[in-house]
Structures are given as C-alpha cells and as structure tokens.
Write a structure and sequence with these properties.
Blueprint (H helix, E strand, L loop, with lengths): L1 H43 L4
Keywords: Membrane, Transmembrane, Transmembrane helix
Protein name: Lmo0937 family membrane protein
C-alpha cells in the first residue's frame, strides 16, 4: 500500500515537472513574440 502511494506521487511529480517546463517554455515564447510584434509596430508607426 505504501509503495503504491509512493509510486503514484512519484509519477505525479514527474508529470508536474514535465508539464510546467513545457508550459513555461510556451509562455516565454509567447512573451518574446508579443515583444517583437510590439517593437515592429513601434518602429513602423501606427497606420490609421
């Protein structure tokens, strides 16, 4: 019983590490893209 709980916790921990690393990468990628788009709009000027 104790080994089953330990195994489940280990699997959940590994899943959390993988998911949060992927999520953090995606968030950083979106922030970089937003920064680039903002800089492009700043240098091109607003077209109304």
């Amino acid at each position: 019983m104790l080994y089953t709980i330990a195994a489940i916790l280990l699997v959940l921990w590994l899943l959390g590490v993988v998911v949060f690393k992927v999520t953090a990468g995606v968030i950083h990628l979106l922030l970089v893209i937003a920064l680039i788009v903002g800089l492009v709009q700043l240098f091109r000027g607003r077209r109304v």
